[in-house]
Amino acid sequence: MSKYYLTLLTFLFALLLSCGNDDNYIPVNETDDDPIMTDDQGTVDDMNVTVDLTAVPFTSLSEYGFFDGNLADLIPNQGVLEYSLINKLFSDYSIKKRFIWMPEGVTSTYDSDNKLLIFPIGTIIVKNFFYDNVLPANSRRILETRMLIRTADGWEFANYVWNEAQTEATLDLDGSNVDIMWELNGETRSVNYRIPNIAECQTCHKTGDTSIPIGPKPQNLNKSFTYSDGTTENQLQKWLDAGYLQSFPNSINTLVDWEDTSAPIKDRVRSYAEVNCAHCHIDEGHCSYRPIRLDYASSILDENIGICVEPDEDLGGGLSHIIKPGNIGRSTLFFRLNTTAEEVRMPLLGRTLIHDEAITLIEEFINQLETECE
Amino acid sequence: MKKLLYTLLLCMPFALLAQQDCANAISVSAGTYTVDTIDGEAPTPVCTTSTTNPANNGEWYLYTAADDVFVTVTSDLQVNSGGDTRLQIYSGDCGNLNCVIGDDDGGNIGNGYLSVASFQATAGTSYYIAWDNNWSSNGFDFEISEADAPPPGQLTFTAQGVTTNGSRLAMVDMNGDFLDDLVSVSNTNVNINYQLEGGGFNTVDITTTPANYTPSWSLAAGDIDGNGYNDLLYGGGSGVTFMYANDDGTGFTEVSGPEYVFSQRSNFVDLNNDGNLDAFVCHDVQPNVYYINDGDGNLTFYQGADPDGIPSGLGLVSNGGNYGTVWIDFDNDHDMDLFIAKCRGGQTEAKINQLHRNNGDNTYTNIAGDTGVNLADAVQTWSSAWGDYDNDGDMDGYIGASSTSDGPTKYMRNNGDGTFTDISGSVDLSGTPLGIENAPGDFNNDGHLDIFSNGRILLNGGDGLSFTVLSQTVPQSGAIGDANDDGFLDIFSNGLFLNNANDNNWIKIVTIGDQSNRNGIGARVEITSSGLGTQIRDVRSGEGFRYMSSLNTHFGLGQDDAIEVVTVYWPSGIITTIDNPDINETLVIHENEALGIDDITANDLKLFPNPAEDFINLETSFQLNNAIYTVFTIDGKRVLNGKLDTNAVDVSNLATGNYFMRIYQENKSYVQQFLKK
Questions:
Q1: B56-67, pLDDT tens digit by residue?
Q2: Smallest Cα–Cα separation from B287: which of B267, B270, B302?
Q3: pTM of the predicted model, to two decimals?
Q4: ipTM associated with this complex
């Protein structure tokens, strides 16, 4: 009986996975030869992931058992929930698939719309980075799978670098670079993609000296998502249903999608900054000694987003303010986002290319500001 | 066709308007003038200290000096409040314009976007004054005024056109002629403007293999392999690349380590005092890293405390926060100590500054938080400027704040006994800028060290207790050196800016090591002159945050016209003195040739027990106040060094063998042999 159930489930997975991805990922999973699926002794429990927290990080990605079938298809096993964020960190146009897993019997709790969910020990957050249409074969290339593991000692980092055959990813916290050429919107692009060293993970993922996740805050999770079984549901509701979240309130102050041109432009900028800048420009962040505060709650104030604020560091070039209303040429924030020079670009890590679409937004925002600086 | 003709007719009269281009510049003299819409020929090159991008249009004026006068051109007038101007001033002719100076935002009125620039004009010489529309094409008024001389204490710089390629990062000798050259770097190229004897440059591009890491965070120079040509260290965001100069300095061999390093300030210094130049790199987010030289120029990477490297490490905070290191001898025991300017948001140890005392035995101890030292400060700083600002014989620290979130800039006076007093409150620092670049230099050669801080010069009032903040014509942050061998410190930043000399005297000293590293990095250099007394410098590679400044040691002499004695305390322990050197020129001192202080084998310096085991005791008839002890092997290698606190020296870590103990005090050295069991 259980075997039949499994087969059915596998079929459903294969059939419906295509709907479950926010990054337009259409998986190909026609030849599922996972031994678990055909194991006569198999039970539903076989699909449940168990992780020995005293043994992490494992040396390979497959050891976790998060994914079913061909590893590169990133098909989540039971209990592994895919999720997405309303706004995502720009990482040189790489595409990401995120998953979360918690052990049996534990759940996260809601703190505040702008604060991370309080995750139980054993929680593992998984983020896969890849490019589609990678040349010469116009194929997908997964580069790395980053993990945040909540152990009894706090959050631990792990990173798994994928082999070229795309059959396995191996623990590597040393950092490396990969040259990638790919096609994006009909244009050939190239990047010297950076896979981070563990210290680079910590640089962004921290408050004070304590390691933390960045993305999974209610304000950035509160959206509907189409799951691999074809159902579409609000993510917080889904997490609640799955036992991953204890409760959440009716009203949540939620980010706007920064690409949503119908939203007020300042909200779009603030929402973009929350995810791309606020991990450092926040109280207790890496750069909290600088005057701006770019977390969504703080950036509602003009001075926190740098409007008419003089920068501490004079970069020359006539850059007189962090944001000089109506004048991108004198706005440090625009300059730092619109350059690839390592010593001045922002964000400090994770970007080597210019995020053209965001630059358009920031330019439009600064140009429509009319505040007179004193 | 009709329309085109009409357009042509409409445009023709404008083309004839006088100030539309260089050739038709309007003649002007002292007075006030009105610029209409800026729509004429754009001026190039750009001569301003802060901006380099050319504009689309300009308006031209021609000023001819009747006498030798100090000219100020300004749009910083109340009538222009709210305006935004940019100014270029040239000598030469329209076919060959040479920058004199320019300005973008030197004004104070309105939003501060108005311009003001001054220059020394020569009688009978014509200067082109061109306003451009980099920011605005709107008209405004400007004023030309003349004065007999610059205001007292005013320094001015003149822009000097140079052709560069890549990031302009260093002013340091690259071909062994002791003249500072200009170095600009890109991924596959080292662009060098070799300074020519008699002035000018020979521009050479040296192609390199692609550097794994480019010097986006810092550049340091030093002669790792002792072949007479400086090598380069590129401090990149995820690693470090070394560029070894070949045996005639015409090419580089790239060596890039595989190790992850988020580089900040980098330095060359002999960390373990074995005579070979080592490299040090601040790590932004991890413990600091260093590279030990095996004597053949091969560097081995170490991070943190390592028994094979530096057993104590050199800054071990796990999350880093290391931004600006400078190697100084703060305790005058003639070995190099390390100050680390630190920065980090939030409540974390990573932001607390450190001072690592060299224990003289390859170990270092962070004493910033010790009683009286007062340097374990949370001030958010990326660099500090260390020098003897009060000329009392020890190094004081200007710990420049990059942000005031954890307190303002700290000015720390060395008490002479290894402790510091915070005199920030009693010295007016109100006009000093925030920022990441702070480095010392005597810019007016008055014998009192100034501070180049973020596009300002803090001109020392003479007692080290007052500074005048100069901004007009002062370049943006850059490398400091002497690009025209006139003995006055110039700055290489957005371009080359030459410091206009005054009548003060000077000397430059080049230290060529033999037993010590080739550059003499780590040497203490002292000069004594009648009016100014004793001035001191450390030979340092890597000051400020990003740039590499000259390795030549520069002193201003004010009106003193002679130097009684120059003393060099080499890292090897050798001491060299030179009496009455010529001034207003470069003095090259070779460690292996120069006259040294004679060692006195003192009959009344008794060492006991001899043979010694853990401690050796000293007994003498002379005073040992502030004496420096140095233990040498019989081959002359320095193995222990420090100030004598007591009459006993810990020799427990020495290998069995024969040693010399030297006691140095007040220009005398006493030597005695001993045996270590």
A1: 999 999 999 999
A2: B302
A3: 0.91
A4: 0.91
pLDDT at A178: 97
Q: Which residue has the tokens 């509701």?
A: A237
Residues of chain B contacting residue A289, judged by C-beta atoms under 8 Å apart: 343-345, 351, 380, 402-403, 405-406
The 3-state DSSP class for residue A164 equals: coil
Who's near A100: CB < 8 A, 6+ residues apart?
Answer: A80, A81, A83, A123, A124, A125, A126, A216, A239, A244
Given B134, B284, B476, which is nearest A316 (Cβ)?
B476
Q: How many CB atoms lie within 10 A of CB A214?
A: 18
Q: Could you tell me the pLDDT band of residue B350, with boundaries at 50, 70 and 90?
A: very high
Please give the residue of chain A at the shortest CA–CA distance from B213. Answer: A342
The lowest-confidence range among A21-35, B70-84, B370-384 is A21-35
Question: What would the pLDDT profile of A48-90 be if each residue is shown by its tens digit?
Answer: 788 999 999 999 999 999 999 999 999 999 999 999 999 999 9
B411 in Cβ contact with B396 (< 8 Å): yes
pLDDT tens track for A56-67: 999 999 999 999
What's the rounded Cα separation, in Å, for the pair B662 and B677?
19
Look up residue B637 and give its two tokens.
């290698």
Distant-in-sequence, close-in-space partners of B352: CB < 8 Å, separation ≥ 6: B321, B342, B368, B369, B376, B377, B378
DSSP code of residue A245:
B
* Contact between residue B639 and residue B654 where contact means Cβ atoms under 8 Å apart: yes
* Chain Cα centroid distance, residue B413: 20
Six token digits for residue A240: 């609640």
Which among B211, B366, B328, B338 is positioned nearest to B282, based on CA atoms? B338
- Nearest chain B residue (CA) to A173: B260
Q: Using an 8 Å CB-CB cutoff, list chain A residues near B51.
A: 316-318
Mean local confidence (pLDDT), B283-289? 98
Rounded average pLDDT over B160-171 = 94
Q: Which of B50, B262, B351 sits opposite A316 (nearest CB)?
A: B50
For the record, the structure tokens of A319 come out as: 């850059």
Inspect the interface and report whether the beta carbons of B53 and A174 lie closer than 8 Å: no
Compute how many other C-beta atoms are within 10 angstroms of the C-beta atom of residue A234. Answer: 15
* Cα angle for residues B664, B507, B233 (degrees, 5° grid): 80
> B201 in helix, strand or coil?
strand
Pairing relation of β-strands B57-64 and B26-28? parallel
Which is nearest to B469 in space by CA: B479, B455, B483, B485?
A: B455
Please provide the DSSP assignment of A291-316 as one string: S---STTTTTSGGGGTBTPPPSS--S
Give buried/exposed letters for B547-571 (b at 16+ CB in 10 A, else e).
bbbbbbbbbbbbebeebeebbbbbb
**How close B527 gets to chain A, by Cα (Å)?**
36
Count of residues making up chain B? 677
Cα–Cα distance between B238 and B262 in angstroms, integer?
5
**Alpha carbon B432 to chain centroid, angstroms:** 18
**What's the pLDDT at A258?**
98
Q: How many CB atoms lie within 10 A of CB B407?
A: 15
Give the pLDDT of residue B597: 66
3-state class of B35 per DSSP? Answer: strand
Are B581 and B529 in contact, with CB atoms under 8 Å apart? Answer: no
Structure tokens at A48: 């449940």
The answer to whether residues B459 and B471 touch, using CB atoms and an 8 Å cutoff, is no
Neighbours of B427 (CB within 10 A): 19
A232-272 confidence digits (pLDDT tens): 999 999 999 999 999 999 999 999 999 999 999 999 999 99
Q: How far apart are CA B273 and CA B521, in angstroms?
A: 11
Q: Nearest Cβ partner of A316 from B51, B135, B349?
A: B51
